[in-house]
Amino acid sequence: MHCACYNNLDHLPTMVHHALEHEELFSRRCILVNGPVIVGAGPSGLSVGAGLHQQGVPFVILDRADCIASLWQNKTYDRLKLHLPKQFCQLPYFPFPPNFPEYPSKNQFIDYLETYAKKFEISPRFNESVQSAKYDETCGLWRVRTVTYNCEIEYICRWLVVATGENAEKVVPVFEGLEEFDGTVMHACDYRSGEPFGGKRVLVVGCGNSGMEVSLDLCHHNAFPSMVMRSSVHILPREIGGKSTFELATSLLKWLPIKVVDKILLVLARYTLGNLEKYGIKRPSKGPLHLKNIKGKTPVLDIGALQKIKSGKIQIVPGIKKFSRGRVELVNGENLEIDSVILATGYCSNVPSWLKDDGMFSKDGLPIRPFPEGWKGKAGVYSVGFTGRGLSGASLDAIKVAQDIGKIWNKETKQPNHYVTLSCDRKCNK
């Protein structure tokens, strides 16, 4: 079957017609997009789509998964709740329902996102994995190549929005002897509940929010977790005096320097949580907000794991030296017998694997220019969801991106629509 593409080309550079004659362009199915291509159908991509929809700008959202917010739907544990109060997590133009709790559950947040997509008439193209995106200087357009059901598609567009986020791929460290270990080994993205681990000795590698909450969940299912704490970590109470710690910090930062706010938070944390060093928990020398800004390391907001640590139900252990059959040797020489390993070792960006030669992203897949300047690059490329500031940071960037594209698009399309039909040679074998 031949593939036809129908799009308004009025606002595209006239040189595109010469590019369309190029043989390579017709080696696959081609779709001209009269607006931006957004890569990623998570909260970041949906936020940009909503902003564009309100301005009448057409767009295409691509996602390799089969649903919106696949990280939330397919790679999070059942007990997960938003770490911050809902007012800091809602997407642009649409608040959470008033009957939602202060910290919505995973399923409530997914329902909210589904409703959000319907409200703004967002229909992503699922099961399309972006293989490459490159700016074609000859015609001044982006060429985004995808694979879906054994069919190659190339999208041609004026703007590209990178919304795959900081957590696109799981990070799996290499440990000596892990291949010899005969128990269950999984990344936290595959962990749903502690129920299968009841009565088991589980080593949780990682002491961030995921590691803490997985360990807590294991306790609730009568497992025996040991949590690897290789380095120092800031642990703060989720609330202080009935008020969100994040909200308190945000308010203080309006009036005080970050170093002063850090000192206030640490004093309050010490008063609320006590001295944690006797439990094997060391605090970094730099304050929690300062460390977050310079290294992107998020402080842990405690929701109950600390009490389990103090009672001994979660054991804190140092770094790993090597694994062997049924056990792990720690850097202090101690050996632990374990049944399972859960790697709460985080995620990373996958942008360098598909975005070619743009000059906007570092080799780690994060914008080179720091927040709040990293949302816009050259030649019509944008980024959303890479601020290190969660959903609130993504929303701020999404609003800027949608407004910037909308301003240009509406200015250049105030003329009658004319459509062209392009036939592409390659057949799609589904």
TrEMBL record:
Cross-referenced InterPro entries: Auxin_biosynth/cation_transpt, FAD/NAD-bd_sf, Flavin_mOase-like
Cofactor: FAD
Protein origin, superkingdom: Eukaryota
GO molecular function list: flavin adenine dinucleotide binding; indole-3-pyruvate monooxygenase activity; N,N-dimethylaniline monooxygenase activity; NADP binding
Substrates-to-products reaction catalysed: indole-3-pyruvate + NADPH + O2 + H(+) = (indol-3-yl)acetate + CO2 + NADP(+) + H2O
Pathway(s) served: Plant hormone metabolism; auxin biosynthesis
Keyword Flavoprotein: yes
Gene Ontology annotations of biological process type: auxin biosynthetic process
Keywords: Auxin biosynthesis, FAD, Flavoprotein, Monooxygenase, NADP, Oxidoreductase
Record-linked SUPFAM superfamilies: FAD/NAD(P)-binding domain
A Pfam family it matches: FMO-like
Keyword check for Phosphoprotein: no
E.C. code: 1.-.-.-
Family: Belongs to the FMO family.
PANTHER family: FLAVIN-BINDING MONOOXYGENASE-LIKE PROTEIN (AFU_ORTHOLOGUE AFUA_4G09220), FLAVIN-CONTAINING MONOOXYGENASE
Name this protein carries in UniProt: Flavin-containing monooxygenase
Species of origin: Artemisia annua
